[in-house]
Amino acid sequence: MQFNLEQYYNENTDKFRKLQLEMQNLFKGVTDLYAIKGRIKSYASLKEKLRRKELELCSETELLDNIGDIVGIRLVYLIGVDFLILHNHINTLCSEGVLTLCEKPNAYTYGNESDDFFKELGIVPIQKESKYTSIHYTVKLKGHGDLCCEIQVRSLFDEAWCEIDHLVNYPEKNGNRICRESLKELAGLVHQSNKLVDTIVREARL
């Protein structure tokens, strides 16, 4: 019997929403968390992702084994040191059995200067050609079976860059060379801005 993706999606939308809200609640009240966002991937986006990955599904199991971001939340911090607070909170939830990591977390970085830092935390550093910057954790929440949720952790400046990139390159990549190069240039400014924020706050607290 052929797997009906649209039917599965429509029948499980409430389940997706429940997972999203419960995941967001796990981080409410966490010290120095600037903002929490959540979303459910639209059916059109899910279908497009499967097309890009060249996946033809036969079952729900195949879908959940291959797609870990139908549900996602985003944790935004202001200062670089606040990332560790969020990372440690995720680790605590995992050690308590509330969350289970589906795979090693990935850190999409601007350059390689922070590779050793992330490796020591058990996070795999990756550089994308687009200069996209974010840390991703794919987890399962106790009581929600094999349905995964992607946690994205990034700075406020990184979040602004991602919103602009999304505006330009979603749902399809923009082929305009000026847009592409300008986004990379903006990513460099964002990288420097993150470092400046850390310096300003560090000096102010001396």
- The poorly predicted ranges are none
- Portion of residues in helices? 40-55%
Mean pLDDT figure? 95
Main pleated sheet: 7 strands, mixed
Task: Report how far the terminal alpha carbons are from each other.
Answer: 66 Å
Total strands = 7
SSE order: HEHHEHEEHEEEHH
Rg estimate, integer Å: 18 Å
Q: What percentage of amino acids are in beta strands?
A: 15-25%
Shape: globular
Helix count? 7
Query: Class by helix and strand content?
Result: alpha/beta
Protein described:
The protein is of the alpha/beta class. Helices cover 49% and strands 18% of the residues. It has helices at 5-25, 43-52, 60-66, 82-95, 115-120, 156-169, 177-204; strands spanning 35-40, 71-77, 99-101, 106-108, 124-126, 134-141, 148-155. Strands 1, 2, 3, 4, 5, 6 and 7 form a 7-stranded mixed beta sheet that branches. Strand 6 (134-141) and strand 7 form a beta hairpin. Helix 6 (156-169) packs antiparallel against helix 7. The N and C termini lie far apart (66 Å). The mean pLDDT is 95.
